[in-house]
Amino acid sequence: MTNNRDDLKAKSGPVLVTGAAGFIGHALSRKLIERGEHVIGIDNLNDYYDPRLKAARLENLHALPEFRFEEMDVSDNESVLKLVQDEGVKRIVHLAAQAGVRYSIDNPFAYQKSNLQGHLSLLEASRHAPDFQHLVYASSSSVYGDKPMGGEGFTEEEPAMNPVSLYAATKRSCELMSASYAKLYGFPQTGLRFFTVYGPWGRPDMAYFSFTQKILAGEAIEVYGEGKMARDFTYIDDIV
User: Fold this and answer.
1) CA 44, CA 12: separation in Å to the nearest integer?
2) pTM for this structure?
3) Which of 164, 173, 60, 31 is nearest to 111 (CA)?
4) pLDDT tens digit string along 23-78?
5) Can you tell me the distance from the alpha carbon of 67 to that of 58, in angstroms, rounded to the nearest whole number?
6) CB atoms within 10 A of CB 12
7) CATH number at residue 16
8) 167 given a catalytic annotation
9) Distance between the two ends of the chain, CA-based, in angstroms?
């Protein structure tokens, strides 16, 4: 005898997680499997930061029988579409992206390929998937731009009209593409504007890592904005 969750899982098929070797993708894949889902993870395993960390995350996931990995770039729309259709994917969590604000200054086309073309690949795959159920995608708090913290402070309801980096601009563009696809084709989507995520298995390029390393080494921490800047951090378990 099967319970309702088993029946629902059978009807919904596997969950596709893009960026599965990444910080959030790894944590989410584990959480989905813990609740009884089958997960197909894809990642291009780029070298934006030490690939050994991504390999270690994947090794951790490969120990779980309900996880399967395909090395794939989300910008490869034909491969993404084929995978979605061949595996009967009806639910996607799209976390793959070229991250980093500073990196975008010297490598702008990496953001065009991974963030814009990659997001479009997932939108197209979703709209062509039979009985597709839901696309959840990662946006970013960077879409809000620089906001003053005086007065009543900052709220998430403020308009996101002035991104101050190419990374932020691509993330806002992805939101607009999703809005247009939702209107044109009617499939459900949810965009999540993550505020800086931290926790176990985190990215080594994040500020809290460099701050900690400098503190332990007795070195000065480089601070921008005359020390008046504020930033929200979100623990990884609260994200997933």
Assistant:
1) 25
2) 0.89
3) 173
4) 999 999 999 999 999 999 999 999 998 999 999 999 999 999 999 999 999 999 99
5) 10
6) 17
7) 3.40.50.720
8) yes
9) 30
Cβ contact 74:118 at 8 Å: yes
Which of the four pLDDT bands, split at 50, 70 and 90, describes residue 5?
low
Residue indicated by tokens 């990496």 = 110
Q: What average pLDDT does the chain have?
A: 89
- Nearest-angstrom CA–CA distance, 176 and 4: 36
Among 111, 144, 167, 181, the active-site one is 167
Cα 218 from chain centroid (whole Å): 34
Identity of the amino acid at 132: F
Q: Of the candidates 173, 176, 168, which has an alpha carbon nearest to the alpha carbon of residue 98?
A: 168
Domain region containing 12: 4-239
Number of domains into which the chain is organized: 1
Q: What does the H/E/C string look like for the chain?
A: CCCHHHHHHHHHCCEEEECCCCHHHHHHHHHHHHCCCCEEEEECCCCCCCHHHHHHHHHHHHCCCCEEEEECCCCCHHHHHHHHHHCCCCEEEECCCCCCCCHHHHCHHHHHHHHHHHHHHHHHHHHHCCCCCEEEEEEEHHHHCCCCCCCCCCCCCCCCCCCCCHHHHHHHHHHHHHHHHHHHHCCCEEEEEECCEECCCCCCCCHHHHHHHHHHHCCCCCCCHHHCCCCCCEEHHHHC
